[in-house]
Task: structure prediction
Amino acid sequence: MKNNEEVLSVSDLQIGYGVKKILSHINFSVCRGKFISILGPNGAGKTTLLLTLANILRPLKGSIFIKNTPVEKVPRSKIAKILSILLTQKNTPPFFDVFSYVALGRYPHTNFLGRITKRDKEIIIDSLKSVGAMHLIDKPMDELSDGERQKVYIARGLAQQPQIMLLDEPTIHLDLKHKVEVISILKRLCREKNITVIASLHQLELAIKVSDFVILVKDGKIIDKGIPEDILTQETVSRLYNFNGVKFNPTLGSIEIPTKQGKSKPMVFVLGGMGKATPIYRILCRKEFCISTGILYKNDIDWFVAREINAICVDEFPFYPIRDEKIDKCKELIKDSILIIDPDCNTKFFYNKTEIIDIALNFGKKVVLFNSDKSNLDSKYIKIINNINEFDTLLDNIRNDKIFYNYNNN
Result:
């Protein structure tokens, strides 16, 4: 089966309940073996859209096509062989062990007596193996953890041997480990079994990494759709979720909470580069320090993060030699800073950091250096930090106005 085969499409679809419209003017198509994420705030209509695509709700207007056939012309028994749906489940099915529960997925393929054949059992076992749940086959459903139960739910849908799987918030209530596991399983099913997965998700950071296509819903309509790298921009994501004071970094697929600059807050200058400064930035943001940083090339991880957290950034074009004006800008920022931080004293790849540190020392500033050889630095003015916990404590002392100018290297 070719991956460019269109398995589902909608045209001018309007959905809702009774006379109440939820979403209108919906148009999109999906191909075989793709992972499609539906993103949007709570109440935007993601679940309603999935229920309509599954033919559980009738559309108010427009058309749904399954493999180029209007859905109303496809017998329900055939739809169940093409499409499975996993809704958000709050209750554990009673009186079922895992095998029996997954076996429910075979009923569209059985005769009117619902008997499970040898072939059906093979498919059930293969479904459990595909989601990494074979070891649970004899366990009662009500004894499973949330993560285990979700794998079994997916296995039941997989036992239908569908071409399309619809899932409503499949990672809700799961811890981080199981969120990643479930998403990875679904992505693997796309690749290995050529199944199209359409899932409503809230984990933006995961969606941008696994989705082949995203659909953004808000305010009764689809506000955008397409390849995530193309449409999940800072502006689009902020509009989608009404972010206030929070920034989405599409390059890194991360959400950053910026620091608020202000003269009443102490400023810390961070010598960045090669992503070494990013964890330092986040701690400083959390402690509500103003941040200045440099000198960063405009393709460095630190540069992308520094920009999103509102740090005052001295930057340079990639592969350019560092210009004197950039050094002068660092001087101005260092002069106004209470502390200089070097996350890594390696100076081979960027510029001579020792020059920046010497500027700080000439101003009588204190320099914090992480896990490094201090042999070429003036130990009278340098504090060596061995781990992030020590740094965290140091910042607390500064914020609490405790004496920090007298620290030494012991």
